[in-house]
Write a structure and sequence with these properties.
This protein has helices spanning about 15-25, 30-40, 45-75, 75-85, 90-130, 140-145, 150-170, 170-200, 205-210, 220-235, 240-245, 255-285, 300-305, 310-345, 345-365, 370-400, 400-405, 410-435. With about 450 residues, the protein is an all-alpha fold. α4 (about 75-85) runs antiparallel to α5 and α8 packs parallel to α12 (about 255-285). It starts with 14 loop residues before the first helix and ends in a 7-residue tail after the last helix. The chain binds phenylalanine (PHE). Phenylalanine (PHE) binds next to α1, α2, α10 and α14.
Length: about 450
């Protein structure tokens, strides 16, 4: 191949394969670990309603923007944005460079701590399998011992990073699509089994009313902001994951429908996971507002005493690991695709080199808990939302008109609604979130 010929890039084998990979990216720790506990903290139904509104108003338009930038650009996050912004020189070029750099950095940082949390899930799978005893003082003590044991956390983090790199190194079709096509149906199957269990064991009615009966007196301004931020994280937006995955689409696919499918799957899976978790919590008389320890402390304690709890626990932690794995793959792919497309590295080299660097950085989170919290806050509160605004600006103001319209395939009304949302609504709402997180703007 001459050096000027474009390097053959991967492609999804089928549309379903793409949808499974993209929803694999979206469905992750955000859905099964984070969504239930923040819903618990912010009081249930009203929070869920606001979160659904955010998915519709901000999440969907941005999802579409990322997919179409990726598909039209046909490159990594930086290359794709650069090729679709109308003016490559000047501000358009700077915007592409800035967004690309921020996106790659976000992938790097998020994966480093995400992998540590996913590693804890592997530890708890082992605990559920009775290969590691639950501390006699309960899961709280087991979790505290794990999080406080740097070597153990680092070990599981290493295992998880290796699993992630082993998939990405095999490429888009052979690696990512193949693994997601197996894990996603398995994940949905496990979730349905858990749902059937709680339908018979009790607690489901209370869980439904907690999640779906809005009590607006519990809704604070803070909750609205949290809901918006979470919509971002859970849909994998603001760091080019969907741009990168979109770039492996064939030109003729109609991405709008696929993006909607991914958002619906992600939302439904979060709601079902919430239903299952709160059913267990209510049935056993525990507290819904248990905070981040809900999945690693409250649940394992309940599993230890409920009938069939061991099997339930094993299934649950498989669910959590599968969800985290397919998301981590997309985080690494953003970084790897960047080094392949922009710096001409081979996939093998890019994967091991930069996967290795992320692993190294992750050791910091495994060793010092505060690093994990810091990176979590830095990325989800600031980097993803800022990345989201930049992508919205690139798509809404700088994208060539032909590229924008081609994505709607003769649906002018939809095109108009999207343009209004991506130009005005999404950036303004997201900007408000950032300001308020910085304490500059107070809402309610
Ligand atoms: N969406 C994933 C989750 O909910 C996290 C993620 C964020 C993955 C950004 C990729 C990019 O856990």
């Amino acid at each position: 191949m001459s050096s000027s010929a474009p390097r053959a890039r991967g492609h999804w084998g089928s549309r379903l394969g793409f949808i499974l990979a993209a929803s694999g990216s979206a469905v992750g720790l955000g859905n099964i670990w984070k969504f239930p506990y923040i819903t618990g903290e912010y009081g249930g139904g009203a929070f869920v309603l606001v979160y659904l509104g955010c998915v519709l108003l901000v999440g969907l338009p941005l999802m579409y923007a990322e997919l179409i930038i990726g598909r039209r650009g046909g490159k990594d996050v930086l290359g794709a944005i650069r090729s679709v912004v109308a003016r490559d020189e000047g501000f358009g070029g700077d915007l592409a460079a800035l967004t690309g750099a921020l996106a790659v950095a976000s992938g790097f940082l998020i994966l480093s701590f995400y992998s540590v949390v996913a590693g804890w899930a592997i530890h708890f799978l082992w605990v559920s399998l009775d290969l590691i005893p639950l501390s006699t003082d309960g899961a709280g003590a087991t979790f505290a011992a794990l999080a406080g044991d740097a070597r153990l956390s680092a070990l599981w983090h290493t295992v998880f990073m290796f699993l992630t790199m082993a998939v990405v190194v095999r490429g888009v079709h052979e690696g990512i699509e193949r693994v997601c096509s197996r894990l996603m149906p398995a994940l949905i199957g496990i979730l349905i089994l858990l749902l059937v269990y709680v339908a018979f064991s009790g607690g489901l009615a209370q869980s439904v009313s907690f999640l779906f009966r809005p009590d607006f007196s519990k809704l604070s301004g803070e909750a609205v902001l949290e809901a918006l931020g979470h919509a971002f994280f859970t849909l994998s937006l603001g760091m080019g994951a969907m741009i990168t995955y979109g770039s492996y689409l064939r030109e003729d696919s109609f991405v709008l429908r696929d993006g909607v499918a991914v958002a619906i799957l992600d939302t439904v899976i979060a709601l079902l996971a919430g239903l299952v978790i709160f059913a267990v919590v209510f049935d056993r008389g525990a507290e819904p507002a248990a905070g981040p320890g809900l999945v690693f402390v409250t649940l394992p304690d309940l599993f230890a005493t409920m009938p069939g709890g061991q099997l339930f626990g094993v299934a649950f932690f498989f669910l959590l690991i599968f969800a985290a794995w397919t998301s981590a793959i997309s985080l690494l792919e953003v970084v790897v695709a960047y080094f392949i497309d922009e710096h001409g590295l081979s996939r093998t080299r890019a994967t091991w080199l930069f996967g290795g660097a992320i692993w190294l950085l992750g050791l910091a989170s495994a060793i010092w808990g505060p690093v994990l919290d810091f990176l979590d806050n830095l990325t989800t509160r600031f980097m993803l939302p800022i990345g989201g605004i930049l992508i919205a600006i690139a798509a809404g103001y700088f994208m060539k008109r032909g590229d924008r319209e081609a994505g709607f395939a003769g649906r002018p009304v939809l095109a108009m609604i999207w343009t209004v949302l991506i130009r005005f609504v999404s950036p303004v709402l997201v900007f408000a979130v950032i300001l308020s997180k910085m304490g500059i703007l107070r809402i309610a």
